[in-house]
């Protein structure tokens, strides 16, 4: 089905993304999951096709396309590989965006260009052990010392950690202040005092790198402060709005991929002398799945269009994150059910898709946190 009646240019981009995902990403999706490795080859192919530069201006190494194209890219990649969808979503929405939005011209020309062209992978690190993403309770400290900041502390569940060369790291520069005490920094891999823990062993998106970070007297130049000191709370919130929209597109893509596999299976599988698709219970399930996908698609692309126009989409992104991630979890579970016992085996990718869908309910803000924000908005 056409997405919101895309115009001709958008349809051409969508077609290109679909062909790329099927040809370059899909063949090794199962291998990435089984062997749990970040696929540098896939990332380099994305870079070569301009995917790492969506939606940044050409002057910073981007493609000049919009957020609708970026969200479409995450959706199409995630149809065949949720891990690869995560790689690009984190790289663009969480690592590149804050540099583009809050960075100096020098930071954009240096760091955003390296990210947009895909010469380096980006990462975003906010969550800490014991504090989750509670911005006011972070333990990582950044102390100004002359022309440098000294970072000390630990981060957990950092996506793209390890392969990434550029990290957006949040630390308290003024522990006595709540919202005004948080600052954001650009930290390069290889900086003395910055070490990366072993990769986490996860339920799903196992080809997507996640690890802890450790900072011990890590000195970074003062010019690597992102925005101004104390602006970290604003940077984190605005970045996460786009992050949870990107993860909603990932959830949408995973659900669509599972639905398509289930649809093909029930049309070909026979029981009691009939195709499974001839049974009314199966037909009703397929109808429900199609409706859930279309409703989710409308939510996701409405938010993407608001972001493209520079309008407030904070509530819409929260609605997307809660609704679409829960839809993806239910729909992938239903897809496994369509396959019966075969769906529970690793011979078919639907079980991988079900495992991949779960994380979309958790990272960049749990569905419970999204409901709190939505309720706050509607209650004024």
Helix/strand layout:
Elements: H1 8-25, H2 29-35, H3 40-48, H4 67-80, H5 82-102, H6 105-116, E1 122-125, E2 141-145, E3 148-159, E4 166-172, E5 182-188, E6 194-196, E7 210-221, E8 225-226, H7 232-268, E9 270-271, E10 274-275, H8 280-308, H9 314-339, H10 350-359, H11 367-378
Parallel strand pairs: 1-4
Antiparallel strand pairs: 2-3, 3-7, 4-5, 5-8, 6-7, 9-10
Helix pairs in contact: 1-4, 4-5, 4-7, 5-6, 5-7, 7-8, 7-9, 7-10, 8-9, 9-10, 9-11
Features:
380 residues; alpha+beta; Butyryl-Coa Dehydrogenase, subunit A, domain 1; Butyryl-CoA Dehydrogenase, subunit A, domain 2; Butyryl-CoA Dehydrogenase, subunit A, domain 3; 3 domains; four-stranded mixed beta sheet; four-stranded antiparallel beta sheet; globular
Task: Explain what this protein looks like in three dimensions.
With 380 residues, the chain is of the alpha+beta class. The protein folds into 3 domains: 1-120, Butyryl-Coa Dehydrogenase, subunit A, domain 1 (Orthogonal Bundle); 123-232, Butyryl-CoA Dehydrogenase, subunit A, domain 2; 233-379, Butyryl-CoA Dehydrogenase, subunit A, domain 3 (Up-down Bundle). It is built from 11 helices and 10 strands. The chain has helices at 8-25, 29-35, 40-48, 67-80, 82-102, 105-116, 232-268, 280-308, 314-339, 350-359, 367-378, and strands spanning 122-125, 141-145, 148-159, 166-172, 182-188, 194-196, 210-221, 225-226, 270-271, 274-275. A hairpin with a 2-residue loop joins strand 9 (270-271) and strand 10. Helix 1 (8-25) packs parallel to helix 4 (67-80), helix 5 packs antiparallel against helix 7 and helix 9 packs across helix 11.
């Amino acid at each position: 089905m056409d997405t919101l009646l895309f115009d001709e240019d958008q349809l051409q981009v969508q077609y290109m993304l679909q062909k790329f995902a099927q040809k370059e990403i899909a063949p090794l999706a199962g291998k990435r999951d089984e062997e749990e490795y970040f696929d540098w080859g896939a990332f380099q192919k994305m870079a070569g096709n301009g995917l790492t530069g969506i939606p940044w201006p050409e002057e910073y190494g981007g493609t000049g396309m919009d957020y609708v194209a970026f969200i479409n890219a995450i959706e199409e990649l995630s149809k065949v590989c949720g891990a690869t969808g995560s790689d690009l979503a984190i790289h663009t929405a969480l690592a590149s965006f804050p540099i583009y939005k809050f960075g100096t011209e020098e930071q954009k020309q240096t760091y955003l260009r390296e990210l947009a062209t895909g010469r380096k992978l980006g990462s975003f690190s906010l969550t800490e052990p014991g504090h989750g993403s509670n911005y006011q309770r972070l333990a990582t400290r950044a102390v100004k010392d002359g022309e440098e900041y000294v970072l000390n502390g630990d981060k957990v569940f950092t996506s793209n950690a390890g392969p990434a060369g550029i990290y957006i790291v949040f630390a308290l520069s003024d522990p006595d202040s709540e919202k005004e005490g948080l600052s954001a920094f650009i930290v390069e891999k290889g900086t003395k005092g910055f070490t990366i823990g072993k990769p986490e062993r996860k339920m799903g998106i196992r080809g997507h790198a996640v690890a802890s970070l450790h900072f011990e007297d890590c000195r970074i130049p003062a010019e690597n402060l992102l925005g101004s000191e104390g602006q970290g709370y604003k940077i984190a919130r605005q970045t996460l709005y786009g992050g949870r929209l990107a993860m909603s597109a990932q959830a949408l893509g995973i659900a669509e991929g599972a639905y398509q596999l289930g649809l093909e299976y029930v049309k070909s599988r026979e029981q009691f002398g009939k195709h499974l698709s001839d049974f009314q219970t199966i037909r009703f399930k397929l109808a429900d799945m199609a409706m859930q996908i279309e409703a989710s698609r409308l939510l996701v692309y409405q938010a993407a269009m608001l972001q493209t126009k520079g309008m407030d989409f904070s509530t819409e992104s929260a609605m997307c994150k809660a609704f679409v991630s829960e839809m993806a979890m239910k729909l992938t579970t239903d897809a496994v059910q369509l396959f019966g016992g075969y769906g529970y085996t690793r011979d078919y990718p639907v079980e991988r898709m079900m495992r991949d869908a779960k994380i979309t309910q958790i990272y960049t803000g749990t569905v419970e946190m999204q409901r709190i924000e939505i309720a706050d908005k509607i209650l004024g």
